[in-house]
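Working notes for the structural subgroup meeting. M.R. asked for a predicted model of this chain before we commit to crystallization trials. I am recording the input and output together here so anyone reviewing the notebook later can reproduce the run.

Input as submitted:
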Amino acid sequence: MGQPITVVEKPTATPGVVRFETNRSLTGMGHERYRSAAEATGHRPPDELARRLFERGGVDAVHVYSNVITVDLAPGADPSGLQKVIEDLFIYYRPGVLPPSDDELTAGEPAAG
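Returned structure, recorded in token form:
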């Protein structure tokens, strides 16, 4: 469940820098810069995306501005797989994983009455 993001990799003039454009804004008009996974502490989409990119490995920094994601690669790192990480940002339930039931989703809510 969820919706994949359409992602297009764009060339850059700087070696070791990869840029991606998506079909949706992740930050509005704000800039978000992450130099490590430890800096991605929030729960917003750009924070989660930065954590996932750092988890993949080979990433020194991530910058997100609206629908543009710029990744500074570690020396010698390969950008393959980065696009897939971005495309899957809003995919919540993978094959074989059942979504929570209505009862599970409302378990912590007070009873109506």
